[in-house]
Design goal:
- This is DUF7025 domain-containing protein.
- There is one protein chain.
- The chain has 5 helices and 3 strands.
- By secondary structure, the chain is α+β, with helices and mostly antiparallel strands.
- β1 and β2 form a beta hairpin.
Amino acid sequence: MKKQKDSQKVRRKKRRLKQKKTRRADREKLRSKTTYSIKWKDLLLNLGQLKQWHDLESTMIEKDVVGYLQLGHLVRSVETEFCNSATMHERMKGSGRVSFDMLWTFLKPGEKGVCKCVISEEPVCGKIQKATYKQNDPHPPKWCLQLKLTTYNYN
């Protein structure tokens, strides 16, 4: 009786492992067919890097003409779509004052940030990993930052 229960457990484990492997294989197939989309905000925040890639591609134009043209079109599209946002960003950066609506242009991942600790209300310094805008109807809108902690004043 005990051997029969043990053998049933072993069979169940093997069946679960087989199901797990097939699910993993199915996920891999889906990933290979998945296309990714990028938010306009992220494109604007990384416009400088896109321009550098476009300039780099111009030296290797004979290898990938289509890629060069598509990257150029993307850079022009982002510039025309966000020309007002980019000029406002530069103006606010120069003046040292930022409106809440334009704060998203400064919350670029990798930039340094300082905020208050939720628990101790001490200043916390770190690099921005993620910035999300939350807008709830009963509450005022707010920005939530995910920082990678670099320094903390323990005194």
